[in-house]
Amino acid sequence: MEALIIAAGEGSRLSNVFSPKPLIPIFGLRLIERIIMVGKRAGIRDFKIVVGYKSTKIKQTIGNGRKYGVNITYIENPEWKKGNGVSVLKAKDHFHGKFLLLMSDHLCDEVMIKKLLSTDIGFNRCKLCIDNNLTGEHFSIDDVTKIYYEADKVKYIGKSLDNFNAIDTGVFLCTPAIFEALEKSIKQGEYSLSAGNQILAEQGKLETVDVTGCFWIDIDNEEALQKAQDLLIKQLFKPTDGLISKVINRKISTRISTYLARYNISPNLITLASFIMSVLSAIFFFFGGYVNILSGGIMAQFSSILDGCDGEVARLKFRFCVFGEWLDRVLDRYADGLIILGMTHALWLSSGDEFVWLLGFLALIGTYMNSYTARIYDDLLKKKFVNKNSFRIGRDLRLFIIFLGSLFNEILVALIIVFVITNIESIRRIFILRNVHRIRS
User: Fold this and answer.
1) Nearest by Cα to 207 from 117, 113, 99, 128
2) Listed residue (425, 300, 433, 303) closest to 370, CA to CA
3) Which residue of 57, 85, 152, 165 has the fewest C-beta atoms within 10 A of its own C-beta?
4) What is the CATH number of the domain that holds 265?
5) How many CB atoms lie within 10 A of CB 379?
6) Which of 322-326, 344-348, 352-356 has the highest mean pLDDT?
7) Average pLDDT of the chain?
8) Nearest to 264 by CA among 71, 20, 25, 15
9) What are the pLDDT digits (tens) for 262-321?
10) 7 pLDDT higher than 90
11) pLDDT, mean of residues 412-426
12) Residue 321 sits in which domain range?
């Protein structure tokens, strides 16, 4: 499967922000780079990009696609001022079967593209992803292309429709039928893609794919650009986040991540930075005394916040890496062990009671079992076998309890709480998994 990206227009309403529009930076990636990477995540490896306005700058910036792990070919459109329909038609000789059609100013997620690609399509048909949510926060109703459809077939399409029941997302699965329709509309003096799509609709050849709920946005002006940034940040919150992550950590970490994403900083480097903070926390705890204990607690909480940044930067910049995920999990376990060891030693220095070593050991076992069972439990959350509103006990809560214990100089109480809740939670998860297994059986 190949993809065609239309990147020929001027984007005049955003020219005071950046020009050309496809190269607008959003959290460390150009707008068109985000589209390429989403396509790649959906399985596309070959892209053809129609360029016109400032084409040289786009080609020099994006290149041949090697740095993205894809192949990119450029198609020049010297008539880019006429309309985006002309840009699509310029690709006629490059496609003889079905292909994905994307706009360089429309962001979407891979789920949406995968859903579209999974549908069947006839040789002389085209499909359009539609959104049935007419009051979404991700668009202005005055700017979007509107759709009226019946029985999964588009009847009317255009920005000025008064009677409509869906929104055009700008993502299409096309066949050469689109080129025939555009040739006809251009002969009639209509140069927009929507004009060609209207001809397809009249012929009964434009079908719909409902992607309501998927992420997409048309970045047509400064307000839409800000909305896109806000929505990308919102996507960094995960359904498996614990209470502390939702209420405190993510609100801070996303601010850090959106700043770090602007620079060429590896997510693995952020993972190491978080681990170093945990090691420093453990060292402060180890030497005991309220000032050291408080410093250790503050560093533990800050490392917890920073621990979310590696994944956030990876998601913002499409730098997903199995090794990075594995490294994060391994270093988190070392960090947990060192912090609990430091706390236990601090308690032993102040009390001399050897019982604290047993308590530290039990808290450590609970912590490791809590982390070990988390992966399966989180999978159940994602698959909705577990109520999404159920209270999740994870690393964010454990480190926050340690922070509070250090703040009030009650690390003995903190260790007891960690020991109790982590072990009880691990047992609870065993019963949940057993019940889910019975239901599946």
Assistant:
1) 128
2) 425
3) 152
4) 1.20.120.1760
5) 12
6) 344-348
7) 92
8) 25
9) 999 999 999 999 999 999 999 999 999 999 999 999 999 999 999 999 999 999 999 988
10) yes
11) 95
12) 236-440
Residue 398, amino acid? R
* Residue-level pLDDT at 45: 96
The predicted-structure confidence for 77-86, as pLDDT tens digits, reads as follows: 999 999 999 9
Bridge partners of residue 4, in order along the sequence: 48, 101
Task: Quote the pTM value.
Answer: 0.88
- Beta strand 46-51 pairing with 2-7: parallel
SS3 150: strand
Q: Could you tell me if 146 and 241 lie in one domain?
A: no
Check the CA dihedral 422-426-428-432 and report its sign. positive
Strand partners, 7: 51
The last residue of a domain, from among 208, 232, 256: 232
Return the amino acid letter for 177: A
For residue 131, the cross-strand partners are 167
| Distances, alpha carbon 368 to alpha carbons 160, 311, 337, in Å | 59, 21, 9
For residue 58 the two structure tokens come to: 């786009």
Indicate if 216 and 271 belong to the same structural domain.
no
Give CA separation, 421 vs 24, 333, 356, 370, 415, in Å.
47, 18, 17, 9, 10
Residue in the structure block whose two tokens are 């499909």 = 127
What Å distances lie between residue 185 and 97, 180, 303, CA to CA? 21, 9, 59
What one-character DSSP code corresponds to residue 135?
A: T
The total domain count for the chain is 2
- Do 52 and 105 lie in a common domain? yes
Same-domain check for residues 255 and 196: no
Average pLDDT of span 14-42: 92
* Separation of alpha carbons 42 and 101, rounded Å: 13
pLDDT at position 15 is 77
Instruction: Supply 401's token pair.
Output: 């309890």
Residues 222 and 240 in one domain: no
CB contact at 8 A, 135 and 166: no
Q: What angle do helix axes 177-187 and 193-202 make, rounded to 10 degrees?
A: 110
Of 232, 247, 266, which marks where a domain is finished?
232
Question: At 383, is the pLDDT very low, low, confident or very high (cuts 50, 70, 90)?
Answer: low
Give 241's strand partners. Answer: none
Instruction: Please say whether the beta carbons of 284 and 299 come within 8 A.
Output: yes
Residues 388-392: contacts with CB under 8 Å, at least 24 apart = 388/239, 391/243, 392/240, 392/241, 392/242, 392/243
User: Closest Cα partner for 310 from 380, 249, 239?
Assistant: 249
Determine the 3-state secondary structure of 398 from DSSP.
Answer: helix
Q: Which of 157-161, 307-311, 349-353, 432-436 has the lowest mean pLDDT?
A: 432-436
